[in-house]
Every structure is written in structure tokens, then in C-alpha cells.
Amino acid sequence: MTAPHREWVIDNQAWAGSQPRLSVLTPFLRDDPSRLLAALGDQAGSLDGRVEIVALDDGSGDDALAARVAAAVEALPCPARFVRLTANEGRSRGRNRLARHARAGHLLFLDSDMLPDGPDFLSTYLKLVQTISPAAAFGGFSVKQASTAPDVALHRAMAAKSDCLPATQRRRHPEKTVFTSNLLIRRDVFEAEAFDENFEGWGWEDVEWAARVSRRYAIVHLDNTATHLGLDTAPALIAKYRQSVANFERLANIHPDMVKAYPSFKAARLLAHMPLRGHLTAALKAIVLNARAPMGLRALSLRLFRAALYAEVVR
Predict the structure, then answer these.
(1) Which ranges of the chain have pLDDT less than 70?
(2) Going from the N-terminus, what domains does the chain have, and what CATH number goes with each?
(3) Residue 1's pLDDT is what?
């Protein structure tokens, strides 16, 4: 174990001397990525060292979790590295740090609460790298393997409708339908256009990155999905939306023409002029948290709740 400033690094036996073509980069904060690492290892083990895995603990402060992840990394049959930070850096800084540890020509950002949907997930990306070497590619998002528990039903329903889109549909707006949860980026593109570290907290840094990159490079969309296992409860969604307000404001300031076309921006602008908006926001929150309310009404209320929050910062 080495100890650079603010980080500790553990490499498994396969790391030294390998020359990967694809680096899978997985940040996590207090979540255990062991299930994902095992699934990736099952696939990468037969790919002759062409895939490496780098996992980053972004300041969880949990020694037991770090020990489990270190053991999982050391047991992987492919080249793998575990990086542990002493303090949280955030979503953008953490991913930029991960890229500096990667050695391959293509970087696959895969969130720790994701799980590949197919046994050829990694080989599909390798084939894509070898055939067309795209500047960026998004494989898609699903809830196929996600929980069906009632407490995450709202998130599941909303994700299935707005996030789990086939590649044919995503290609209509390639810069808008991109998430860092399953995103392939060529190294030279990332070195030219890294994630904006001024985004803090949750939300919108991936959209801003895609908007910026799409002006110079083509973003490929394909159907090579991974499931988002980490569905949130309604209170957790509300908390994340509250966190995202400053990031939405930054996105709107950087890309005003693009954001003005978003339904969320248009709704926020309408709500910005509404009297007693605070009472409306409270009423919408109550509907979102009411598990007995119709799912369609809860989903609509959550979208309007987010718009009401953004009404504070739209211009």
C-alpha cells in the first residue's frame, strides 16, 4: 500500500505490466461496489488483460467497507486497482481523479450501484473501441434487475419512463440523454474535456459535460445497458433535487440556449411568477410522499416540485 497525499492505492497481482484497452472506472461513497466488481471480474477474466478496473472510495471513512473492497479488488482475475481517499472530493473531481489512474485509451465510467444486464457487456464495449473508437458512447440505463420494493416504486416508475430509453430514441438528442452511470469516453477527448469541478453535490454535471463535448465530438448511443440497482426512496429523491438547484443554475448559465428548451426550465419559469409558491411546493411534496396516491400523480408532483425549486434560480 502506498500513501500519496490524501489517497491510498492497492493494486492486485494482475495490475503490473498489463496493457489494457479499456479502463472501467467506478467511484463510490459509502456504497459497497463488491457485487459490481464481481460481475465485471466474471466478464473481464476471459478478456486477456484487455480490461482493467479502478475503484475509488471517495472519502467514505469506513474501514470495514474499505477492507471488503480491497479484498474484492485483490481477488479479481483482471488488472485492478483500489484508490481510497481520506476526504470526499465530489462527483466531478472524483471521476477526474479516476481518469488519472486509468491506463487504457478508453475510459468506461460505471457507477457502483450499476450492474451489467448482459454477459457480453464488456466485450461489446471492447468491440466498439476496436472497430470505431468513438469519442464518447453511452450504453443505456435500465431497471431490469432493480428492486420492486414499494418504497422505491416511484423512482422505478420515473426512471423507466424517462431514463430507460432505447438507443434509437436517445440518438434524437444525443447530448441530453447521457449519464455518467454507463459512459465510455476516449482518453484524448477526456483530456480535452474533463468534468467541470465547479459542480458540487448531486446532479447535472454529466449533462453539462455532454453538452460541451457534443460541440466538438459525436456521441454514439448503443444498447449495452446496465441496471441502476440503487433506486431511491421518495424522501431521498426530494433531498437530491434540493441538492441539485445550484448545479441546475450553473448549467443554465453555461448553456442557456440548450436549457431554455428543457421542460423543467419552462415549468420553473412559469412557477417563478406564481404567488405563494412555497405553499405549492409543500403541497407537491406531500403528494410525492403519499404512498397511497396514484403513481402518475406522484411522478407529476415530483417533477413539478423540482421545477418549483428551480424557480428560485431561473432567469
Answers:
(1) 1-5
(2) 7-231 (3.90.550.10), 238-310 (no CATH)
(3) 43
Give the sign of the dihedral formed by CA 150, CA 152, CA 154, CA 156.
negative
**Burial class (CB within 10 angstroms; exposed 0-12, middle 13-18, buried 19+) of 96:** middle
Q: Per-residue pLDDT tens for 226-255? A: 999 999 999 999 999 999 999 999 999 999
CA dihedral in degrees (195, 201, 202, 205; nearest 10)? -20
User: What pLDDT is attached to residue 274?
Assistant: 86
Per the document, the length of the chain is 315
Could you identify the residue written with the cell 482493467? 52
Provide Rg for the chain, Cα atoms.
Answer: 20
Number of Cβ atoms within 10 Å of the Cβ of 43: 20
Q: What is the pLDDT of residue 150?
A: 96
pTM: 0.93
DSSP per residue over 56-82, as a string?
Answer: EE-S---HHHHHHHHHHHHH-SS-EEE
11 residue type, one letter: D
pLDDT of the residue at 6: 87
Q: Are 178 and 210 in contact (CB under 8 A)?
A: yes
